[in-house]
């Protein structure tokens, strides 16, 4: 899950490449590097650590030139060292390559190259590409052709970019499995793993498809497909301003994105609520009401936080539409021979739209002939383009690695979907209208939740010392407990587990002691009394309790060491309110522990390898 940026034009490339890498650092941040063409010379600079380390070294030793490539890394092969950082060079500076993905047959290719006398400098899979390219380039000067001759020898996935001093002003890129997008500027062209790095320069972009190779020059670009030959690219326009990805006066992107959630939910519902019919409507599903009525089963496939959102979707669709729903881990679903009949609708959920396992699940479902829809945030992403239809979240760029606002947008959209499917079946107009009105009030209620942040900081001080934490929730709140636990794990590195509250007595209760806090997600609802007894069971074993509950719930407040209130609201929208205190709890625990909140260790924002 690395970040790639390439530039060719009339401006100095380094500053543009560095600024692009900073915007892509959420994709991987263990080392970084650039390679520029300074006349006949290839200039290489690379450093272990953050992009700012590379920036520091470029102040001492600048990399001149108006054409270059760059990379920020998430290690797949070899630790984070200067040597393993990209770009990798082949043939004594004949060519430099940056790569995002995994070359699965790199060991065999390496053996062949070493047997023919090539000396490797790094432990990476990527370096084989540089040496194969140098060999293919030979004494010639057509990097575009050389790349096309090398690619068939590579097994695995790649988004790659290359430059060679023999081809001044040219950047060549290729895509198979990992995203790449071309930026169309005036007298300049850019290449990047994600439009965020291109947006400050141009809103006109062309997304590369799998099997495509591109040659960029300052004046022009050309795309060829490995089977279909020359391609006339589709040029899209980015519908968001680059400022949206700016941190502004927030301490971290995660905090900024948590605080944006009232707008996020409003934007996710904008133009989709149909008060007059007591339902919701979508423009991009590409399925008629008749086709949707014929659906007898829904399968969601997703990873991580998106999987938790899908689980909330399961509870809501079963409750409002009485339709059976299964929620699958995409990485399992794509290889498991799950029996799906022809009345099954498959939905994949992905914020980035690039997660390899979720993309694999989409392709597997489509290969088996199922209508496959997607819920995505990134417009023009691979999953969004390959799905038969879908729903965009309109949450804007999400930069923090720990997903927050995208989760809320996913839950809001799945609530709308449950309402839509329900009103196509047995859900009455009054019940549908009640959901419309409840959703309409959520942004204002979220502002009330955000105002309780000081109390959440108090709870965080208690949690920051813990070695392990249990998160517990019933019904719609079980997925919220899972999400709360994931957030804490991701950014504070404290072990945490989410469990259905009723499951506690069947094992996890053994973990309860004065050092192991429990976080109960327990707004008022049909099962509230049962949850109160479960809180009592934890109290009886001297377990500290932090409880998210409905404002004014004296019983729960009495039982909890810290009570985190949320406004009273209908059960179907409570997950949207209850998750925010858990996001802020994780945020403040990580802040208290001094963790790198926006770039937690070992993680990356979109996981484009299996
Ligand atoms: C969530 O905070 C994590 N970043 C991770 O679990 C993420 O949800 C998962 O990788 C799926 O990403 P996607 O929604 O972009 O497919």
Give the SSE map:
Elements: E1 3-8, H1 13-24, E2 31-38, E3 41-48, H2 51-60, E4 67-72, E5 88-90, E6 95-100, H3 106-115, H4 127-137, H5 143-150, E7 158-163, E8 171-176, E9 181-184, E10 189-192, E11 204-207, E12 212-216, E13 221-225, E14 229-231, E15 236-237, H6 253-259, H7 261-269, E16 273-274, E17 279-280, H8 289-294, E18 297-302, H9 304-321, E19 325-329, H10 330-333, E20 344-350, H11 356-367, E21 372-376, H12 382-386, E22 389-392, H13 405-423, H14 429-450, H15 453-463, E23 468-473, H16 477-492, E24 495-500, E25 518-521, H17 528-539, E26 545-550, H18 554-559, E27 562-566, H19 574-592
Parallel strand pairs: 18-19, 18-20, 20-21, 21-22, 23-24, 23-25, 25-26, 26-27
Antiparallel strand pairs: 1-4, 1-10, 2-3, 2-4, 5-6, 6-7, 7-8, 8-12, 9-10, 9-11, 11-15, 12-13, 13-14, 16-17
The structure holds 2-deoxy-2-amino glucitol-6-phosphate.
The coarse silhouette is globular
Could you say which small molecules are bound to this protein?
2-deoxy-2-amino glucitol-6-phosphate
Spatial order of the strands forming the largest sheet: 3-2-4-1-10-9-11-15
Structural class: alpha/beta
Largest sheet features: 8 strands, antiparallel
Pick out the low-confidence regions: none
Could you tell me how far the N terminus lies from the C terminus, measured between alpha carbons in angstroms?
10 Å
Short description:
The protein is of the alpha/beta class.
């Amino acid at each position: 899950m690395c970040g790639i940026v390439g530039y060719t034009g009339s401006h100095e490339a380094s500053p543009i490449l560095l600024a692009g890498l900073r915007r892509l650092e959420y994709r991987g941040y263990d080392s970084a590097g650039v390679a520029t063409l300074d006349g006949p010379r290839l200039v290489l600079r690379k450093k272990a650590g953050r992009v700012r380390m590379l920036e520091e070294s470029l102040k001492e030793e600048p990399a001149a030139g108006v054409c270059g490539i760059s990379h920020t890394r998430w290690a797949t092969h070899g630790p984070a060292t200067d040597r393993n950082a990209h770009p990798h060079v082949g043939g004594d500076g004949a060519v430099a390559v940056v790569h995002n993905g995994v070359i699965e047959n790199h060991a065999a290719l390496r053996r062949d190259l070493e047997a023919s006398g090539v000396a490797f400098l790094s432990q990476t899979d990527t370096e084989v590409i540089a040496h194969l390219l140098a060999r293919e380039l030979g004494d010639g000067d057509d990097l575009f052709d050389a790349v096309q001759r090398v690619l068939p020898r590579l097994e695995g996935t790649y988004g790659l970019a290359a430059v060679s001093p023999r081809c001044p002003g040219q950047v060549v890129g290729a895509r198979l499995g990992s995203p790449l997008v071309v930026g169309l500027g005036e007298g300049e062209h850019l290449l990047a793993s994600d439009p965020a790095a291109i947006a400050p320069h141009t809103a006109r972009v062309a997304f590369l498809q799998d099997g495509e190779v591109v040659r960029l020059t300052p004046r022009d670009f050309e795309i060829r497909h490995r089977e279909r030959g020359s391609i006339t690219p589709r040029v899209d326009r980015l519908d968001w301003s680059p400022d949206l990805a700016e941190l502004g006066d927030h301490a971290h992107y995660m905090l900024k994105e948590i605080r944006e959630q009232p707008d996020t939910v409003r934007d996710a519902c904008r133009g989709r609520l149909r008060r007059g019919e007591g339902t919701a409507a979508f423009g991009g599903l590409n399925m008629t009401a008749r086709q949707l009525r014929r659906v007898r089963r829904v399968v969601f496939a997703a990873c991580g936080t998106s999987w938790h959102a899908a689980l909330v979707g399961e509870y809501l669709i079963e409750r409002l539409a009485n339709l059976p729903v299964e929620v699958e881990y995409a990485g399992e679903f794509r290889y498991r021979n799950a029996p799906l009949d022809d009345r099954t609708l498959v939905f994949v959920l992905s914020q980035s739209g690039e997660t390899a396992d979720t993309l694999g699940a989409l392709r597997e479902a489509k290969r088996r002939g199922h209508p496959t829809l997607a819920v995505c945030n990134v417009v023009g992403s691979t999953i969004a383009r390959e799905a038969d239809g879908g729903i965009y979240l309109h949450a804007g760029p999400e930069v923090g690695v720990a997903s927050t606002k995208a989760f809320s947008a996913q839950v809001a959209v799945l609530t709308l979907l449950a309402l839509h499917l329900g009103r196509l079946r047995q859900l009455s107009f009054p019940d549908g209208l009640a959901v419309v009105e409840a959703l309409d009030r959520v942004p204002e209620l979220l502002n009330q939740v955000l105002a309780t942040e000081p109390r959440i900081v108090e709870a965080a001080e208690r949690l920051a010392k813990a070695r392990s934490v249990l998160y517990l929730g019933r019904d719609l709140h079980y997925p919220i407990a899972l999400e709360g636990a994931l957030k804490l794990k991701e950014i504070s590195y404290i072990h945490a587990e989410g469990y259905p509250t009723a499951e506690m007595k069947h094992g996890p209760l053994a973990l309860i002691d004065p050092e192991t806090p429990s976080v109960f997600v327990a707004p008022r609802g049909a099962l509230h009394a049962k949850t109160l007894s479960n809180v009592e069971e934890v109290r009886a074993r001297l377990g500290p309790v932090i409880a998210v509950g409905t404002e004014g719930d004296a019983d729960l407040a009495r039982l909890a060491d810290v009570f985190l209130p949320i406004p009273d609201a209908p059960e179907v929208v409570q997950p949207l309110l209850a998750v925010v205190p858990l996001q802020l709890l994780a945020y403040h625990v990580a802040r208290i522990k001094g963790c790198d909140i926006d770039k937690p260790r070992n993680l990356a924002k979109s996981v484009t390898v299996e």
